[in-house]
Design brief:
This protein is 0% helix and 41% strand. By secondary structure, the protein is mostly beta strands. It has a single domain, classed as Sandwich (Immunoglobulin-like), CATH 2.60.40. Strands 1, 2, 5, 6 and 7 form a 5-stranded mixed β-sheet that branches. A 4-stranded antiparallel β-sheet has the order 3-4-9-8, with no helix packed on it. The termini are far apart.
């Protein structure tokens, strides 16, 4: 699994068009953990509700988006404003070793968890040794 980084494109065929979005867009921090059965992707997306999450898999690319609603109404007069409200977006290239039909997602306490199960043929398995 690799992340897209348009700043380091080396060849014309590697360049992907950048999606234009209104307002601020943040790249969520992620942890990716590998187990024998799956890859587990944990993305920090504070302020996003489950209705505001969009996870898509298309042609080997996994895209996650999260929409954050503003904390205050438009026109609010702030005395100090440090928390930037914006949406989240990140994309990953998924190898053939992931069973795309079985990808599952859940959101709890601002953390999006994606379960990316490995194709059964690529999972490690223990071979029983028979005595002779």
């Amino acid at each position: 699994m690799t992340t897209h980084d348009n700043n380091n494109a080396c060849c014309a065929q590697d360049v992907k068009p950048e999606r234009v979005q209104a307002g601020r867009t943040y790249v969520p921090f992620v942890d990716i953990v590998e187990t024998p059965e799956e890859l587990l992707l944990l993305a920090d997306m504070p302020g996003v509700s489950s209705e505001g999450v969009d996870v898509r898999y298309e042609r080997g690319e996994l895209t996650i988006r999260g929409t954050v609603k503003p904390r205050q109404e438009a026109g609010t007069r702030y005395l100090r404003r440090e928390y930037g409200v914006g949406d989240f977006h990140r994309a990953f290239t998924i190898g053939e070793g992931i069973d795309a039909e079985k990808i599952e997602a859940e959101l709890k306490d601002g953390v999006l968890t994606l379960h990316l199960p490995k194709v059964r043929a690529l999972r490690p398995r223990k071979i029983a040794v028979k005595p002779t």
